[in-house]
User: What shape does this take?
Amino acid sequence: MLLTMACIVFANVVLRYTTGESIVWGEEISRQLMIWVTFLGAGLVLRFGGHVAVDSLHAAVQPPLARVIRSVIVVGIGIFCLVMTYFSSLYVWATRFQTTAATDISISWIYLAMPIGFVLLFVHLMFIARRFIATGQYAESDELDADSAASL
Assistant: This one.
């Protein structure tokens, strides 16, 4: 999806500067692909510890209290994912009759990335929570595994 989006944007820019014309649906499709890439990739990034986190609080306390803080954070993220899945599903349903301007695609297909993305976030969070409960270790990574990201 990311490669497709990059190709469309590149072709659109080249056409705009060489001919003064652009692909009518290029910007719209690129935006839709960016939405899907964002929501599908968020869970994978969460699983490998790639999201930005402020760890100064739990780094400053004793390990038992740090574990409680991490547990509260995991529960909070889980609740957030479930609530967002519910409300984004309602949003998808509410926009089912609206269509995009250039491609005439139902906007629901674009916004469907939200509930799917939040479900994937929740699933990846459960993998993190399982490891955290079993070992007491929280997944952290200084760099994301490129092979895992490419397999998405």
